[in-house]
Amino acid sequence: MLEIERKFMIASDAWKDLADAGTPIRQGYLSLGEPTVRVRLKGTKAYLTIKATKSPGVRHEFEYQIPVGEAETMLSTLILRPPIEKIRYCVPFAGHIWEIDIFEGANKGLQIAEVELQSRDERVDLPYWIGPEVSDDPRFFNAYLTHRPFAGWGVDYATLLKRV
Amino acid sequence: MLEIERKFMIASDAWKDLADAGTPIRQGYLSLGEPTVRVRLKGTKAYLTIKATKSPGVRHEFEYQIPVGEAETMLSTLILRPPIEKIRYCVPFAGHIWEIDIFEGANKGLQIAEVELQSRDERVDLPYWIGPEVSDDPRFFNAYLTHRPFAGWGVDYATLLKRV
């Protein structure tokens, strides 16, 4: 399938009033090239996902559920860098489900909101707690964060919010 | 699971008397690094396979059946090089199943026999039609053949048989 998404920084914690309980995610990459190959533990399930850029903001995505034990083996022995850890919260707003990623570990402090769209130009009402858009900023790509985690950016999130 | 296999050249066509009807395989790589990520069409089925070297001749292998249509999309749009094409024949011999790959396309002329083992030092009776072992010769790795297909080796198979 094609994945079309937009990605934003988060301007306030107001999203928490609308969020679900959150699901822990641990993921890593078997290939950081093009395409990327990602293994992800999400709650009690595991997935293998292939993504390749088709055009800006639009990606081929193939996702397969795999046994949790095999994902754990891949995360502990095969991935190219330490895994990314985050909690994902789902927040409904004006007909879309927003995914809020609160990063931990080497990316602690980083927060990203994503929304999936049916087409690149689909109109989406931005929640009032949304910050600047970073859809095309490679620093915020998860594959990039494995190379250059947020801890090494040398800037705190509040300062970054004003600069992006 | 762990994959332990040995790989050989083929000295004669005598294996054909014992072989099945053969299954066409078309495969390509989403990652040629370590681990490799392979997509394969095999007959009417499709698989995504991750392999990583654990020690010489021993590899981690994770294989997942995927929808044929998705494999076809990956093979036509996402793989890093032109696909490898071959016919695979299964040949029972002395308690093992040998897999004979007869390559086509850019690797036409190349023939490889493989046998999977339970352990690296498992005794295996070599069929009389088997040639020299090439288990640790990277030229015969399928991932390598996508970079350097047999057509460009500048040697025919009969000559190579004497040299390896």
Account of the 3D structure:
The structure is a homodimer of 164-residue chains. With 164 residues, the first copy, chain A, is mainly beta. The first copy, chain A, has a single domain, classed as Hypothetical Protein Pfu-838710-001, CATH 2.40.320. The first copy, chain A, is built from three helices and nine strands. The radius of gyration of chain A is 15 Å and the shape is globular. The model of chain A has no long low-confidence stretch (mean pLDDT 94). The interface between A and B is medium-sized, with 17 and 17 residues.
Write the layout of secondary structure elements.
2 copies of one chain form a homodimer.
Chain A: E1 2-10, E2 23-31, E3 36-42, E4 45-55, E5 58-66, H1 68-78, E6 84-93, E7 96-103, E8 111-117, E9 130-133, H2 142-147, H3 157-163
Antiparallel strand pairs in A: 1-5, 1-8, 1-9, 2-3, 2-6, 3-4, 4-5, 6-7, 7-8
